[in-house]
Amino acid sequence: MRTLLAIERADVCLMMIDATEGVTDQDAKIAGEAHEAGKGIILVINKWDAVEKDTYTIEQFKKDVYNKLSYLTYAPIMFISAKTGQRVNKLYETINNVASQNALRVTTGMLNQVLNEAIAIVQPPTDKGKRLKIYYMTQATTKPPTFVVFVNNKELFHFSYERYLVNQLRKEFGLVGTPIRMIVREKGENAE
């Protein structure tokens, strides 16, 4: 209960993961709550000083974390030691960066330029001879960045194409450490 209240009050959630244990079920549950709440997230690996390291340790650890928390691949990972103070001071810079990314506002003109380039690279899907037409995109809110896409038929807007568009938005605008929400509406459909 206290964790949920803390998530609700926060702009950026630091998910503290014990390096000696790796990602636990409890960590995954809390990370999922922060993700669903649309909060900025930083994965902080503590007790990094207690881990035996070689050349591949960091990359392997990151891979394992993103494997267990596959919905958080947008979240930066920081390796710290609270005991020795190693890299703790770098947390503040990352927190500020993620907070600003979570509150980022993109103009409709810029969004539609990115959208048109994305559509030119990968055509929208078709189903039984019907082609998805994407008219335009606009940003509805921030915290998390939420975009509304207007289409001819939302049944044709497949989740894989949504993921592709989200990846294009990340490529263009960064949006590091923040989830992206996408709302699909048919042109002429009233807001709910």
Describe the 3D structure:
This protein has 192 residues and is an alpha/beta fold. It contains 6 helices and 8 strands. The chain has helices at 2-9, 25-36, 57-68, 90-102, 108-121, 159-173; strands at residues 12-18, 40-46, 77-79, 126-127, 130-131, 134-141, 146-151, 181-186. It is elongated.
Topology:
Elements: H1 2-9, E1 12-18, H2 25-36, E2 40-46, H3 57-68, E3 77-79, H4 90-102, H5 108-121, E4 126-127, E5 130-131, E6 134-141, E7 146-151, H6 159-173, E8 181-186
Parallel strand pairs: 1-2, 2-3, 7-8
Antiparallel strand pairs: 4-5, 6-7
Give a brief rundown of this model.
The protein is of the alpha/beta class and 192 residues long. Helices cover 39% and strands 21% of the residues.
Number of helices: 6
Structural class: alpha/beta
Number of strand elements: 8
Quick check: average pLDDT?
92
The profile of the biggest β sheet is:
3 strands, parallel
Rg calc: 19 Å
Task: Determine the strand fraction and express it as a percent band.
Answer: 15-25%
Query: Oligomeric state of the chains?
Result: single chain
Low-confidence stretches: none
Using the alpha-carbon principal axes, give the shape: elongated
Whole-Å distance between the termini? Answer: 30 Å
Which strand order do you get reading across the main beta sheet? 1-2-3
- Helical fraction equals 25-40%
Q: Which H/E pattern describes the elements?
A: HEHEHEHHEEEEHE
